[in-house]
Design brief:
By secondary structure, the chain is an alpha+beta fold. 29% of the residues lie in helices and 35% in strands. The strands form two sheets. The protein has a three-stranded mixed β-sheet, covered by helices on one side. It has a two-stranded antiparallel sheet with strand order 1-3. β4 and β5 (87-96) form a beta hairpin.
Length: 103
């Protein structure tokens, strides 16, 4: 069983962080769109751990659109809040093809 290391929290500006991750997996055949709300969103997180999670989600999306004509991957991040006023980073990846016929 893998031992999870103790998180080393660091202040991370989300928009440039996501832009950097997209550069790591960039593919000329895929259009990447990013939407971070607010644009200056800052989080405290373990950079290594969150990089690994988000890179895996982005890579999964790129694999899902392989062979699709004119694919678009949209990455969205914002802050969510529950009834106890606890906040978290809400991250979503959508992928689609403009030529995909909706039924």
């Amino acid at each position: 069983m893998t031992k999870i290391s103790t998180p080393v929290l660091k202040t991370i500006a989300v928009k440039p962080f996501i832009e950097h991750l997209v550069l790591l997996v960039e593919d000329d055949r895929i259009t990447f769109e990013q939407q971070v709300t607010p644009e200056n969103l800052i989080i405290n997180a373990d950079e290594g751990q969150i990089s690994q999670v988000l890179l895996n989600l982005i890579k999964n999306a790129t694999q899902a659109v392989k062979g699709t004509e004119n694919p678009i991957i949209k990455i969205m991040a914002n802050i969510g809040e529950n009834k106890h006023k606890r906040k978290w980073l809400r991250y979503r990846t959508e992928y689609l093809s403009p030529n995909y016929a909706k039924s």
